[in-house]
Amino acid sequence: GKMAAGGGAPAAFDAPTTLHIDNMDDDLHVPARRAPKLGEGIDFKNNRFPYCVVWQPFPPLTWFLPFIGHTGIGDSSGRVFDFQGPYTIIEDDMMLGKATRYLQLDPSKIRAKNLPGSSDMERWDSAVHAGCDDYSRKIHCIIYPNCNHHVAHCLNKMKYGGWSHFEMFQLQFMVLAFGRNCGLRGLLISFGPFAVFLVALAVGLVFTKWS
Predict the structure, then answer these.
(1) Is 42:53 a contact under the CB 8 Å cutoff?
(2) Helix 120-135 vs helix 147-158: angle between axes, to the nearest 10 degrees?
(3) Which of 89, 97, 157, 204 lies 20 to 30 Å (CA to CA) from residue 138?
(4) Is the dihedral of CA 137, 143, 148, 154 positive or negative?
(5) Peptide bond into 86 cis (omega under 30)
(6) pLDDT of 17-52, one tens digit each?
(7) How far is CA 167 from its chain centroid?
(8) By the 8 A CB rule, do 114 and 130 touch?
(9) With the C-alpha atoms ordered 185, 187, 190, 193, is the resulting torsion angle positive or negative?
(10) Membrane-spanning residues where (predicted)?
(11) CA distances from 99 to 7, 45, 48, 58 (A)
(12) Among residues 58, 36, 93, 79, which one has the least CA distance to residue 193?
């Protein structure tokens, strides 16, 4: 749904640890959410991508320029946030359906010192939610600002890897060069139309040469 400032608490993956709270004569066992390890929690079917930049094609542009697409960013629980329109950040419902590629990042590489939170997980979420809050106050444009600028802004807020100047084309290149496909379906949806275009272009050039 549409993001509200502050957001709700993300759902837990599991409860490997337990907090013990003395309550009169009984122990109250409250499951404590832990940060997922890298690679955990990624779920193509349910569109869950913890600590990820996620990507989906933006037709027809992606058919001819496969590095251009729509992006969002996942919080520590894997919920994806994307900038879909003027003053509109949508949670858990990407603009063009399910993601087809993703690039998982490492929250231990956050270098910002001013983010709330006592753990990498909490600081990641603080940066993502603050970035979403900022962009929920912005107009949306196909050129600028767009979904890629929103994701780059979140990474800049956390100074990911010590860098605070992420921008649109750098982000798209990162996902294209280092990202992974969401299975065979993701591969075909991401690059199938571009492959068809290249084949058609090659066939056209051959026929032109021999005609």
Answers:
(1) no
(2) 140
(3) 97
(4) negative
(5) no
(6) 333 333 334 443 334 456 666 667 899 999 999 999
(7) 15
(8) no
(9) negative
(10) 187-207
(11) 22, 10, 9, 11
(12) 58
| Predicted pLDDT at 67 | 87
* Closest to 190 measured CA to CA, from 95, 71, 66, 88: 66
Q: How confident is residue 11, by pLDDT bands cut at 50, 70 and 90?
A: very low
**Matching residue, tokens 């767009």:** 146
Contact (CB, 8 A) for 103 and 179: yes
**Residues β-bridged to residue 18:** 31
Tell me the per-residue pLDDT of 137-175, one tens digit each, with 9 for 90 and over: 999 998 999 999 999 999 999 999 999 999 999 999 999
Sign of the alpha-carbon torsion through 139, 140, 142, 143: positive
Q: What is the DSSP string of the chain?
A: -B--TT-PPPPPS--SEEEEEEETTEEEEEEEP-PPPTTTT-BTTTTB-TTEEEEEE-TTHHHH-TT-EEEEEE-TT--EEEEEETTEEEES--TTSS-SEEEE--GGGB--SS---SSHHHHHHHHHHHHHHHHTTS---SSSS-HHHHHHHHHHHHTBTT-----HHHHHHHHHHH-EESHHHHHHHHHHHHHHHHHHHHHHHHHHHH-
- Write out the two tokens for 123: 């600081």
